[in-house]
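Researcher: Here's a chain I'd like modeled. Treat it as a single chain, no partners, no ligands.
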Amino acid sequence: MNYKLVPYSVKLAEVRSLVGSCQESVPTKVCQQFFEVEHQKHPIGVDTNSDLFDALVELIDGDNLDPDRAYHYGYALQAMCEYLGTRLESNSWNQVKWATLEDTGLNAVMGKGSPIALPLIPDFPTIGHLPNKKIRQLIEEPKGNSLKIESDEVHGFLRDFDGWVQQAYDDKKDLVFFYY
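Model: Modeled as a single isolated chain. Structure tokens:
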């Protein structure tokens, strides 16, 4: 089975400030935007009884998070990144196995986990992030060295990664990655 990697350029401070903000209308707006993107721009109604909506409400209200619902919070974080940031072009990463992340070295980024406190997610989504400070360090490195290169096959993936780093740097944002 193949999986995909979805990167976002977003200000982590904005994501973190949304958590616990108790903004009542935000979960509906976040869900609507996320569903529109995920369903190829075909608007659908927001089901206020959905697991995603419930997870968003719990995060935004600052509720205690249920470890049994951990993956719902992971996807809720992705929806928040969609709402507050920019999903970066990643079509070449739509059919990748974990071994590809290992080949490129991106598994080290994914090992950093969620940028907000979430219960341990035992399965998917796997979440990783790069704060802007680390992005600035990567920009200062010679191109092609931001991740390890072991074969010609991964060069395209590395060019994508370097492009994401450059865009986040230019926008003064952070990067958040979701793998599922």
